[in-house]
Design a protein that fits this description.
six-stranded mixed beta sheet; single chain; alpha/beta
């Protein structure tokens, strides 16, 4: 309950501060939740790098509270008017509060693998440890994820008590702030603002292909996909609402920097947003293309510098606090630099030294644009057609002159950047994926749909801003009815953040209960090898998230004699099988003898072995090496490794029922 109260208080504080800033700067109140939240997250980020993360939270909340008190004393009447008259701000407050209450009541849990390897594990470590995961040993390498989602989460979870549902609610609050910026329309046009906000809210479902009857986790997960889409689109919408003139324009730099810190690909997204802003300032400005170039460059260039500084700062920080091999920027198994990958990809695109794999991927990516479903209407080609119709409606609604030029410039600029991003993903498939995964275009829709969503959100914001006449209002109503109608017809999921999906957590809760019983025997510095016979890596990833100790990587292949590593390969989880029964389990079998397992424990300096699930092979072949022996079916047990010279190398340290004596 304390966590819910804190979250709602911060949402209310952001709402009041936005009204205060609107009264001071004479801008729509709905534009301010996004830069305020971005500024708070960046403050935490900057203070966390020298080791003062919790102080960063205190400084941020204290600054928000001071602004609220100052506004209550100096601008109370005007701020109250801004608060009650801004439909976008009220939608932000109502939407964020509703999501906090619903998620608190249902308390959903993480369920996607990537949440246990990075996107859920990272904010958990930051909240519990009070510092970035890069500065403290654990189950997450510094290069594995970026910090934006973690710093936003810790603002709403400052008490070192981790709640998965609150992490989801914090990221949803950021999403609502971005939608508020999209609905920040000049003048008193509440209906238009509500329409833009509502369409923006369903875009994660509109640009998706959720199988019938399955759970849709668009607003109930810790993945970076939703913040990526919302921040990319929100930056453009914030710029549209603030305009290219005045002091308030520079507030756009705040969400741009937070966007850059969201994901590795977001450096490109940040530069794309700056490119679109600069293009708009140049070609859609009042001065014309000839006289407007230098002024546009002068206003866009500092935004680009902000993006570069954010990107470089995280790389410098991780390089300073972690080993070089954990932070080196490399792509694929060959360890190529990003520059070498880009140069090699461009050469192959031009036909210079084109490899067979690249040629096959080029053909697959071309066909995928017309065949792979990325939205409720079908393929990428259908999505671009839908976007073009929305741009046409925005152009039709706009007045002649700069407003119409802006629609054309933004739409064509985003189309050009999408083509470049599409080719960039082709290059990544060639260099960063195994051949089987690359030729299957693994993650194709997940990598591209955030761009489609942000593109649509930007066009909806332009359509809303241009819907001043009866003609414009009609165009907005038509587009809104189409988006919401198609969603109601074909896109409403069977379950989502609004429904209880506890049946999906059976395995999760089993591992969670076992880990809770074993964790008192571990510290964060302890290294644990997890063995769960028959696992397909699901339980291994769950333990990696739940255990206090650091889960050690296993190996694959064959390792039967100490020191003979010719047939041993690097891996993560493993099932142990006998040399003559390699088909015992369908996933990542590891041929291993007891002597080889002991040698491996000694080699990697592992202090503990967690036997989650045993089987007949372990009970028969490994029992003499474990104090008390092993059984085919036994409780999860944590064993301390006392050394290869001991008569019995593994002695019990804890079981499901508690710490062993």
């Amino acid at each position: 309950m304390l966590q819910l109260a804190w979250g709602l208080c911060l949402v209310a504080l952001l709402g009041w501060d936005s009204a205060v800033l609107a009264a001071e700067f004479r801008r729509p109140a709905a534009v301010f939740p996004l830069p305020l939240l971005s500024a708070g997250a960046l403050s935490v980020y900057l203070l966390a790098m020298p080791g003062f993360l919790r102080a960063g939270v205190f400084v941020t909340v204290a600054a928000w509270a001071a602004l609220a008190v100052w506004g209550a004393v100096r601008l109370r009447r005007e701020a109250l008017r801004q608060l009650t008259e801004s439909s976008g701000l009220m939608l932000f407050l109502g939407g964020a509060a509703l999501l906090w209450i619903v998620l608190f009541c249902l308390q959903p849990m993480f369920f996607q693998w990537d949440e246990f390897t990075a996107w859920g594990l990272a904010p958990k470590m930051v909240v519990q440890n009070g510092c970035f995961y890069a500065a403290r040993p654990g189950n997450l390498k510094a290069s594995f994820t970026y910090p934006a989602t973690s710093v936003v989460t810790v603002l709403f979870e400052p008490f070192a008590r981790w709640s998965e549902w609150a992490c989801m609610a914090a990221l949803d609050t950021l999403a609502m702030a971005c939608l508020a910026a999209a609905s920040a329309l000049p003048g008193d046009r509440r209906t238009a603002g509500v329409a833009v906000f509502a369409c923006g809210f369903v875009l994660p479902y509109f640009f998706a292909d959720t199988p019938a009857g399955s759970y849709a986790g668009q607003y109930a997960n810790a993945m970076a996909d939703l913040p990526l889409f919302m921040l990319f689109g929100g930056c453009l919408c914030l710029y549209f609402a603030l305009g290219g003139k005045g002091r308030a324009y520079w507030l756009t730099a705040l969400p741009l920097m937070l966007l850059t810190l969201t994901k590795d690909i977001c450096f490109a997204y940040g530069l794309i947003a700056v490119f679109i802003i600069g293009l708009d300032l140049w070609l859609a400005g009042d001065k014309g293309p000839r006289k407007g170039f230098l002024p546009a460059l002068g206003r866009a260039l500092p935004l680009a510098v902000a993006v570069v500084l954010a990107f470089v700062s995280w790389g410098r920080y991780t390089a300073a606090v972690t080993p070089l091999q954990d932070t080196a920027a490399a792509v694929g198994s060959e360890g190529l630099s990003y520059g070498a990958v880009l140069l090699g990809g461009v050469r192959q695109l031009l036909g210079i030294g084109r490899e067979e794999k690249f040629a096959a991927l080029l053909s697959l990516m071309f066909r995928a644009f017309f065949t792979r479903k990325v939205c409720l209407l079908g393929s990428g080609a259908a999505a671009v057609a839908c976007l073009t119709l929305t741009a046409a409606a925005a152009w039709f609604s706009a007045e002649k002159g700069p407003a119409r030029r802006r629609v054309v410039v933004v739409h064509l600029g985003l189309a050009f950047c999408f083509a470049a991003l599409y080719l960039f993903h082709l290059i990544l498939y060639n260099y960063n994926f195994a051949e089987s995964e690359a030729l299957a275009l693994k993650g194709y829709d997940r990598y591209l749909t955030p761009y489609y969503q942000a593109w649509m959100l930007a066009l909806l914001a332009l359509l809303g801003q241009n819907a001043r006449s009866r003609r414009g209002a009609g165009a907005l109503c038509a587009v809104g009815a189409a988006v919401l109608g198609i969603f109601a017809w074909r896109g409403v999921p069977a379950a989502g953040f609004w429904s209880d999906a506890s049946t999906r957590y059976t395995v999760r809760q089993d591992v969670q209960a076992k880990a809770a019983a074993l964790n008192p025997a571990l510290t964060v510095d302890d290294k644990v090898l997890v063995i769960s016979q028959g696992d397909d890596a699901t339980r291994w990833y769950y333990y990696r998230y739940e255990l206090t100790g650091t889960v050690a990587d296993g190996f694959s292949g064959s390792y039967t004699e100490a020191g003979d590593t010719a047939l041993r390969e690097k891996g993560d989880f493993m099932n142990l099988v006998a040399a003559d029964s390699t088909s015992l389990y369908p996933c990542d079998n590891t041929v291993c003898t007891p002597e080889a397992l002991i040698a491996y424990m000694q080699e990697i300096g592992c202090e503990y072995l967690l036997l989650d699930r045993s089987d007949g092979y372990l009970a028969q072949a490994f029992s003499p090496y474990f104090a008390g022996g092993l059984q085919e079916s036994m409780p999860a047990t944590l064993y301390r490794f006392v050394g290869e010279q001991a008569a019995v190398p593994f002695v019990p340290a804890a079981q499901e029922s508690g710490v062993a004596q």
